[in-house]
Amino acid sequence: MSKVTSLIKAYQKMDPAARNSWEVLLLYPGIKAIFFHRISHALYRYKIPFIPRLISEFSRWITGIEIHPGASIGQDFVIDHGMGVVIGETTIIGNQVLIYQGVTLGGNTLIAGKRHPTIEDGVVIGAGSKVLGNIKVGMNSRIGANSVVVDDVPANCTVAGVPAKIIKKDSAASKKWHADYQI
């Protein structure tokens, strides 16, 4: 299965409103932002100046989703709705991650180096959440809407609040969601 087909299937699996492949491909801003990011990230890795940032700026202008060309994004990454999503330069996102509108994966320092979060496989990040700093969100975890996460989140946990606190450990629902997702 091609990467594009896999991504389209991921959108269809994670968004009940997705009617067909053409709708996802042509009308969903998240898939467009990911497409532009793949191009800008490749150019960024080859240390080509200016053009990667120009592509990411164009993408932000047409999708409302800002992804720095330096961010590393895994396969089947789904941005549902997407308006206002910001993903910082040193962010690392694993496979089969779902985020909703208004999510920020940002830094909390001006010191150069790794300053953005690492999001492991199977994570779901609720609308309006802020995940800040060089922290790790463990595999299959869930972040409640409008939460502010400033500390590591263990695998298979649900966190919520400001600041985010663990409200459920070793969530069977998170494990089932991830298992059900497999394409």
Key features?
alpha/beta; 5-stranded parallel sheet; 32% helix; 6-stranded mixed sheet; 15 strands
Strand order of the largest sheet: 3-6-9-12-14-15
**Residue share in helices?**
25-40%
Number of strands: 15
Shape: globular
Radius of gyration from the alpha-carbon trace, in angstroms = 16 Å
Overall pLDDT score: 92
Biggest sheet: strands, sense, closure? 6 strands, mixed
Question: How many H/I helical runs?
Answer: 5
Strand content: 15-25%
Low-confidence stretches: none
Cα end-to-end separation:
10 Å
Structural class computed from helices and strand pairing: alpha/beta
Secondary structure layout plus pairing:
Elements: H1 3-14, H2 21-27, H3 29-45, H4 51-63, E1 66-67, E2 72-73, E3 78-79, E4 86-87, E5 92-93, E6 98-99, E7 104-106, E8 118-119, E9 124-125, E10 130-132, E11 136-137, E12 142-143, E13 148-149, E14 158-160, E15 165-168, H5 172-181
Parallel strand pairs: 1-4, 2-5, 3-6, 4-7, 5-8, 6-9, 7-10, 8-11, 9-12, 10-13, 12-14
Antiparallel strand pairs: 14-15
Helix pairs in contact: 3-4
Describe the structure.
The chain is α/β, with parallel strands linked by helices and 183 residues long. It is 32% helix and 19% strand. The protein has 5 helices and 15 strands. It has helices at 3-14, 21-27, 29-45, 51-63, 172-181; strands at 66-67, 72-73, 78-79, 86-87, 92-93, 98-99, 104-106, 118-119, 124-125, 130-132, 136-137, 142-143, 148-149, 158-160, 165-168. The protein has a 6-stranded mixed beta sheet with strand order 3-6-9-12-14-15. Strands 1-4-7-10-13 form a 5-stranded parallel beta sheet. The model has no long low-confidence stretch (mean pLDDT 92).
